């Protein structure tokens, strides 16, 4: 039996992470925590003392409550330098080592290595798995970073390091080594690149093809809106990194953990009215009562008063209910009162009226707000009422966007014949800002494969999501498709909707980074409609927003006839107001061409006409989505 008291563990986090762009690996966000936090959770049941070998960010590692040991050898000498300092500082006879980038390590690692070490009277026990060689034949492979080492082996290690050697398993020749075969090779996988990290982060997230494969009647050339929305929602993955921000800065951010109320709110039973507090049992069937006033209870200070039968306390709104009182008579319901007493009719209040109960707003120990909540002004106040100063929120989503088209000019440039000013980047800027994203405006990209590829790569390497406009319809889609296909998995759709028929969606990769891609159509109204009805929800999901925040559809009467083709969803721009009868009534803004941006600026709502709907008669009820909300 393994006595865990005999085992210390050392997490090796001292490397330079050259394949991960030299970031500090252990501190990389992973599945709601960091890599090192996952390793720590695995180790806690396996060892009593745990330390971390790290050569950077000692404070951040120390925050996990563990001793941080830096190499005594200079210049990131590798894991053996970590083992050296680990053995030097080890308080027990045995030291278990694991790397910081293997969050899936076996739960029985220490126990099995220890059993073998004892059985074979070895100096060191090392994990072994079977890995196929180039012919597919399984070969035993040692994982020297997953070892249990006797502290007494330090002189052999020292001699090996003194000879200038640094290979992790290189010093095993001088030792008695016990090999322990683990059948689950995947438990030893480590994460070396940011791309692997993102893949693991996604866990078993399906590929775009798999998501699409779940639709029995998928037709990219005639895709219903709901199918496109379904595919996007299934494929998108949230960004999990979390940060703590001061309460005010949490506005419009997404809560990253349930906020448990540390206190009851209100903390005491208190009065909802200015008036007189008394024991409601005295009301019983009496026509009139006169109670003697024994004192005054102000808000903010318990009065210490205890009225007896026939007595009451003058109380202010928010004042703590005096002991024995459960009812408050609002002062305006008194038929007579002076400083000494109050008289009122027995039916003017019922027992228990106008008392706010302790914890009726929030109860200690109960979640006050749930993870995934988009924090609005009321939430700020509610968190403040709990006395909480800092809030864990998801990190902001980074979204890069650019326009494509040789005809596009930016503000400040002369407008040559045949050219137009780029407006999509401005509508996209506004819509993304409203969502609270960090935005990267990449300007205009020429209609040219090399320029498009360069822009997509740059966007992919700096953002979580990319939004492009233009170049996805038949005229241009061929080269766009070729470039996007080269960089990842992107589907080109013709959606059963108007405006916004052509659209591309998928995920691209570049240099170990990946990003979701929304290739929106170029027409200015189409770009807004596709953003609102596809990208917006997807980005909110990436931000970690919990599902229940969908915008509510309202209904209004069509003031005039609306032409509508059945078989597609139309998003017409409307102005809703109250008709003469007080009912909501909506009219079109005028011409509905997808190049007519004025139709959006004049509108205060979108009229959503679903697939099955044909022409709309005057007076018929239609669904609308108002632009403005109260908060
Ligand atoms: N033969 C077909 N032609 C078109 C179809 C079709 O199915 N068959 N679909 C039409 C629809 S619907 C749309 S929407 C557009 C989408 O075209 P692209 O995504 O390829 O976009 P572009 O051709 O680059 O531009 C379309 C239109 O929008 C103007 N534009 C583009 N970017 C901007 C910008 N940043 N600011 C302002 N205006 C912009 C551009 O000048 C074009 O006029 O395809 C239809 N054609
Ligand atoms: O998708 Mo297009 O917007 O209808 O011109
Ligand atoms: Mg085009």
UniProtKB/TrEMBL annotation:
Q: Which cofactors does it use?
A: Mg(2+)
Recorded metabolic or biological pathway in which this protein acts = Cofactor biosynthesis; molybdopterin biosynthesis
Q: Which reaction does it catalyse?
A: adenylyl-molybdopterin + molybdate = Mo-molybdopterin + AMP + H(+); Mo-molybdopterin + GTP + H(+) = Mo-molybdopterin guanine dinucleotide + diphosphate
Q: Region entry Disordered: which residue ranges? A: 346-365
Q: Which InterPro entries does this entry report, sorted A to Z?
A: MoaB/Mog-like_dom_sf (IPR036425), MoaB/Mog_dom (IPR001453), MobA-like_NTP_Trfase (IPR025877), MoeA-like (IPR038987), MoeA_C_domain_IV (IPR005111), MoeA_C_domain_IV_sf (IPR036688), MoeA_linker/N (IPR005110), MoeA_linker/N_sf (IPR036135)
| One family name in Pfam for this protein | MoCF_biosynth
Q: Which residues form the MoaB/Mog domain?
A: 400-541
Q: Name one GO molecular function term.
A: molybdenum cofactor guanylyltransferase activity
Q: Which residues of this UniProt protein bind Mg(2+)?
A: 101
Record CDD domains: MobA, MoeA
Share an example GO biological-process annotation for this protein: Mo-molybdopterin cofactor biosynthetic process
Q: Per the record, what about its domains? A: The N-terminal domain determines nucleotide recognition and specific binding, while the C-terminal domain determines the specific binding to the target protein.
The entry assigns this protein to a family as follows: Belongs to the MoeA family. Belongs to the MobA family.
Function in brief: Transfers a GMP moiety from GTP to Mo-molybdopterin (Mo-MPT) cofactor (Moco or molybdenum cofactor) to form Mo-molybdopterin guanine dinucleotide (Mo-MGD) cofactor.
Supply the name of the protein. Answer: Molybdenum cofactor guanylyltransferase
Q: Which organism is it from?
A: Pseudoduganella violacea
Gene name? mobA
